[in-house]
Amino acid sequence: MDNFKAFLKRKDIEISVQRYLIDALGAMAQGLFCSLLIGTIISTFGTQFHVPFLTATVATVAGTDYTIGGLASAMSGPAMAVAIGYALHCPPLVLFSLITVGFASNALGGAGGPLAVLFVAIFAAEIGKAVSKETKIDILVTPLVTIGVGVGLSAWWAPALGKAAMAVGSVIMWATDLQPFLMGILVSVLVGIALTLPISSAAICAALGLTGLAGGAAVAGCSAQMVGFAVMSFSVNGWGGLVSQGIGTSMLQMGNIVKNPKIWIAPILTSAITGPLATCLFHLKMDGAAVSSGMGTCGFVGQIGVYTGWLKDIEAGTKTAVTGWDWCGLILISFVLPAVLTPIFHQIGKKLGWVKDEDLKLN
Asked: Whole-prediction pTM value?
């Protein structure tokens, strides 16, 4: 046993929640951002502003035409796998081999591909690390083992994982359609909390394929956390804190939350209000990429995702036009209500002696 532990340490194989559910999941979200999300943003920008080189076909593969944004989106599987490998400290041959693994697991996982990529890439990466530089023909052995294990597990696990993820996502979306008020609160609060925790709400939403009304509630919850923390901490963090949290991430407050969890009450209460308003009053839906549901106001990706969904619905004939009510709902839920409600709840907390402005100070 001691020899085995020494081997794992030498190979930097750390079997832990931190490594797999925080580091790997967070990296996977970055891989998604740098492929699917950026591709969607590029395509939307090109279409809306009629930019020829962004809407023109740059490659045709197996009869499918790809624009620049389309190519970026198509690489989401490899991007996620390589990002996971990077988080797991993979050596170069393992890291590069994960490109194939990511493509296979994402393709075989179907709509639940991101969850399949997470599981398969972790296993393939760790096994690849275990054999790396253990033979004199490492340049052959390491890629063969990593790709062989990854593709094999993809064929074995990915379809089932993909179906399971989509089943869970479908149940959440069905429940939200059936009980928009209660599920609006639940989804908004939980996804918002996940966004601020050192895990990836974007990856979770992508893995579950969370769209529709449930996706809209998720956008509300994430926005409440980001804009809420940004505005209520403005007095101690200034403009830098406003920008870094408001369009960056509320995860920056995690250290302060550990010191005083009560600072989290205000944005959570806000998300419990904006979530059902999004589902019941404004019928805010995420019909764009599921990963956008868990991004909130980070780079305005959540809002761009909602807007992209509107365009898709118009193109499909299920929506006639983007209305003023649509814009009113998106702006109120994403920006105005979090900026107004969270500081009010924070002031109540201050009067009760639960929190102080200094509790929100970023280092």
From this structure: 0.79
